[in-house]
Amino acid sequence: MEHYDAVICGAGIVGVSAAHFLAKAGIRRILLVDERPPLSFTSDRSTECYRNWWPDPAMLALMNRSIDLMEAFANESGNVFRMNRRGYLYVTADESKIAEMKAASDLISSLGAGPIRIHSSETSDYQPSQPEGFLHAPSGADLLLGSDLIRRHFPYLTDKAVAALHARRAGWLSAQQLGMYLLESGRRLGVRFEAGRVTGVAVDGGRVRGVQLSSGVRVESPVFINAAGPFLKEVGKLVGVDLPVYTELHLKAVIKDALGVVGRDAPLLIWNDAQALPWTDDERAALADDPETRWLTGTFPPGAHTRPEGGGTDILMLWEYHTLPMDPVDAPPLDEQYPEIALRGLAAMLPRMKEYFGRIPRPQLDGGFYTKTRENRPLVGPMGVEGAFVAGAVSGYGIMSACAVGELLAAHVTGAALPEYAHAFALSRYDNPEYQKKLEHWGDSGQL
Ligand SMILES: Cc1cc2nc3c(=O)[nH]c(=O)nc-3n(C[C@H](O)[C@H](O)[C@H](O)COP(=O)(O)OP(=O)(O)OC[C@H]3O[C@@H](n4cnc5c(N)ncnc54)[C@H](O)[C@@H]3O)c2cc1C
Predict the structure, then answer these.
(1) Structural domains of the chain in order of their starting residue, each with its CATH number
(2) What does the pLDDT look like over 254-268, one tens digit per residue?
(3) DSSP symbols for 192-232
């Protein structure tokens, strides 16, 4: 029988961050268990982007804190995880959306995301982002109005664009390098990693006593942390708790943009308008003829997005045009049409994408699971059995929130003072009938 002060199930970005912050808080014997190599499941599939631009005040506060922590780690490590501050650019060709965009931006700004600057003239003092690094960058957002101004700064965008909102406390980083930094610094403080599957949690007298591993080893520990990512629900059942989460498959395609359609210094580019995919008349007629392909001639939702990746010509392409709730599996089914559809959708924003129609460069396609609660807020805190905690349900924002989630989890475990946003992410929020009522009319979650 081995003895630990805390056992964490799951060495994704959330588990390694929880281990790091627990070790920093003075917990000495921490065991991190994963049946896969660290950071190799969902945390290996992401777009690696971050932003503080969220319409939910609790989420915005969590992200601001997480970005503060990431910036501190970047400073102390010489930015080993290459955090940049290129921002997110939300683009529309719809004049009628400008007022809505302004109102939403004013709201998000008032919640603490930073000031809004509106630019509509030739003499605008809009400050473009630097391609690398994160220091001395503005926060808040810039709203650029008018095609000429937008294309002066982003010449690759369509001349139909009438407004572009540039969220500035945002960008991307290497999630693997951030995770390794958290893991290695945790290891130096005593965190131990063990390969294996958690198959049971011993609960006796209403509290956690230890953990059973697939190797047959039994570990004694008063604290068990469920950071099992898409398997959060399954692992919750090991302590007899049915966590209110579900999983969705999300895909991502990478192609070589040899023609240079996306500027190499571009921010994350997001097309904010619904659209019909561009087909020739013949293609459209043929697709509409067949009940299996007719949906390709219908209306597609806003949200197609892309960004350049690395020093070569790679670009990432993502578009959630239909959401697929499904249980997590190691090798998810990959929709072979996805790269072509995402590329066609992006052509609305980046007209030169048309040059790839019918001859799309060979894509790399992968996918991972968003683990979500109904209102898309995470679960961080006690699980309802003494000594059992949960950290997860971080949906499509697990990389950007991991540092603040790990810190919050550690505060729950050690009994330290909790930040104001803690109650918004605790499992106990669902015990409140008022909150349950609010859930029925929950607005935009802000998730891409
Ligand atoms: C396509 C896509 C794009 C994304 N883009 C972004 C983005 O731009 N920005 C962002 O912030 N986030 C993004 N995300 C979300 C982000 O990747 C996830 O929220 C995050 O990686 C989840 O981390 P995790 O540690 O909770 O889960 P995981 O990384 O899945 O880790 C959970 C670990 O638990 C282990 N485990 C489970 N059960 C057991 C058991 N019984 N015993 C032992 N080990 C167990 C698993 O093996 C796994 O390694 C994206 C996700 C996808 C799929």
Answers:
(1) 2-48+175-244+373-440 (3.50.50.60), 84-171 (no CATH), 246-370 (no CATH)
(2) 999 999 999 999 999
(3) EEEES-EEEEEEETTEEEEEEETTS-EEE-S-EEE--GGGH
